[in-house]
Design a protein that fits this description.
This protein is an alpha/beta fold. The chain has a seven-stranded mixed β-sheet, sandwiched between helices. It has a four-stranded mixed β-sheet with strand order 1-2-3-15. A four-stranded antiparallel β-sheet has the order 13-14-17-16, covered by helices on one side. α2 packs antiparallel against α9, α3 packs parallel to α9 and α10 runs parallel beside α12.
C-alpha cells in the first residue's frame, strides 16, 4: 500500500525537531553536526537570529501578494544582487530548477529576438545535474533520472566536462548557449578550472552564444566569493541560483546581463509564488550577512583550513578515502570504500551529517558560519569513521 507521502525518497529514519547554528537536534535528543546543510541550502545554519527575525516580522505584515503588483522587498533584493554581480536584471522564482528553466528561456528568446529562432540548442556537460523537471532532465547527464518519463525534451546536447575541444566541436548553427556548473555538486564535487571557465567565455563570444552558469549549489557565498565564477575573473551572460540564497527559505533567481535579457518583455515568463514578500525578506536577510565586511573572506579562510585538514585525513586513511575534490565549502571525499558506508559511519557512529554524490564521492556542505572549532569537530569525526571502516576492511 502506498504511503500518504508519495514514496519518491529513500529517507533516513531520523526526524529533527530543532536546530542551532551548525547543529541539528533529533526527536530522540541526539545532536548532529550538520555538514549537509539541507544540501548546501542552510547557508547561515539553523535558527540564525537575523534570518528568523526578518521572516517573522515580514510574515506578520504580508506574506504574498503575487507579481501583479510592485513588491518593494523584491526591488531591493534585485538592486543588491545587481550591485554584487555581473547582472543588470533579475527574475525571482522558487527553486534552482525553475531558475534553470528560466535561464534557458531567456537564452532562447534572445536569439529569437535577434532574428535567429533556429538557435535553440543548449550545450551541456557530462556529469551535470540541473534538476528534475522534464526540461532539465534533458540538460542533466544521468539517464537513470529520465527512465520512464517519456522522450527527452529536444534541444540539449552534452560534451565532456572540462574538454574544450569537444565544446568547440559541438557548436553548430542551432546552438544558443553553453550551460555549465562551475562546480558540479551532484556529479561528484568536480570543480572547473579557472582557465576552462575563461575559455568558455571566449568560445561563447566567438560563436555568438550566451554563457549560462548553474550556481544553484556553488553560488551565494559558498566558495568564499559571492559567485563561484568570480575566482576566474570573468562573467557569464546568465546565472541560475537558489539554495543558499534563501538560507533555507525557497528562493531562486535568474541573473542576466542586459544583452541576454533584451528579448524578455511582460507576459513571456512568470510565477505565482516567486519573489513574494516573505521570500524576499529571507533572501535580503541572508545578503545582510553574506555581504557584511569580512564575512566572505572568513568563508574562504575556513574553507581552506577544512580542505587542508581533509587532505591530511586522506593521507592517514588511504584505504578509505583517496582524494579531496571541489572548492570552497563545497567539498567532496572521493571514497575507496562505498561512499554510503562512510556516510552511515559518520551519521550513526559520529553524529555527523553529510551528502552522497556521483562517482563514489561524499559531499561536505557545511553552513557558511562554521568556525575552526567546528572544523576540528568534523575532522575528528571523519578520522574516527575512517579508522573504523579501515579496521572492518582489514
Amino acid at each position: 500500500m502506498v504511503t500518504s507521502v508519495m514514496p519518491t525518497y529513500g529517507r533516513i529514519d531520523i526526524a529533527f525537531e530543532r536546530g542551532e547554528g551548525p547543529y541539528l537536534f533529533a526527536t530522540d535528543g541526539r545532536r548532529y553536526l550538520d555538514f549537509a546543510a539541507g544540501i548546501a541550502t542552510n547557508s547561515l545554519g539553523h535558527a540564525h537570529p537575523h534570518l528568523v527575525k526578518a521572516i517573522c516580522e515580514q510574515a506578520a505584515r504580508v506574506m504574498h501578494v503575487s507579481n501583479l503588483y510592485r513588491i518593494p522587498e523584491q526591488e531591493r533584493l534585485a538592486d543588491r544582487l545587481v550591485a554584487s554581480s555581473f547582472a543588470d536584471t533579475v527574475f525571482f522564482c522558487n527553486s534552482g530548477v525553475e531558475a534553470l528553466e528560466g535561464s534557458t528561456k531567456v537564452a532562447r528568446r534572445y536569439h529569437f529576438h535577434n532574428g535567429q529562432p533556429h538557435r535553440t540548442r543548449i550545450i551541456c556537460c557530462t556529469h551535470s545535474f540541473h534538476g528534475r523537471t522534464l526540461g532539465m532532465l534533458s540538460a542533466t547527464d544521468k539517464e537513470a533520472y529520465r527512465e520512464g518519463f517519456g522522450p527527452r525534451v529536444e534541444g540539449f546536447s552534452h560534451v565532456a566536462f572540462g574538454n574544450l575541444n569537444e565544446m568547440r566541436a559541438a557548436v553548430g548553427d542551432d546552438a544558443a548557449a553553453i550551460l555549465v556548473e562551475p562546480i558540479q555538486g551532484e556529479g561528484g564535487a568536480n570543480a572547473a578550472s579557472n582557465d576552462y571557465l575563461r575559455a568558455l567565455r571566449e568560445i561563447a563570444d566567438e560563436f555568438g552564444l550566451l554563457l549560462i552558469f548553474d550556481e544553484v549549489q556553488c553560488g551565494a557565498g559558498r566558495t568564499g566569493k559571492m559567485w563561484a565564477h568570480e575566482w576566474a575573473d570573468m562573467a557569464p551572460d546568465i546565472l541560475a541560483t537558489a539554495k543558499g540564497l534563501g538560507g533555507g527559505f525557497p528562493v531562486g533567481a535568474v541573473l542576466a546581463n542586459e544583452k541576454a535579457a533584451s528579448g524578455m518583455k511582460p507576459g513571456l515568463h512568470g510565477t505565482t509564488f516567486g519573489g513574494n514578500p516573505l521570500a524576499m525578506a529571507a533572501a535580503n536577510a541572508v545578503l545582510d550577512v553574506l555581504l557584511a565586511p569580512g564575512f566572505l573572506d572568513g568563508v574562504d579562510r575556513i574553507a581552506k583550513l577544512l580542505r587542508q585538514k581533509l587532505e591530511a585525513v586522506v593521507r592517514r586513511h588511504p584505504a578509505v578515502v583517496e582524494e579531496v575534490r571541489g572548492a570552497g565549502l563545497l567539498l567532496g571525499l572521493k571514497c575507496v570504500v562505498p561512499n554510503g558506508d562512510l556516510q552511515t559511519a559518520l551519521r550513526e557512529g559520529q553524529s555527523m551529517l553529510s551528502v552522497g554524490a556521483a562517482d563514489n564521492v561524499l559531499r561536505l556542505l557545511p553552513p557558511l558560519i562554521i568556525t575552526e572549532s567546528h572544523v576540528d569537530e568534523a575532522i575528528k569525526a571523519i578520522d574516527a569513521a575512517c579508522a573504523g571502516l579501515a579496521r572492518n576492511a582489514a
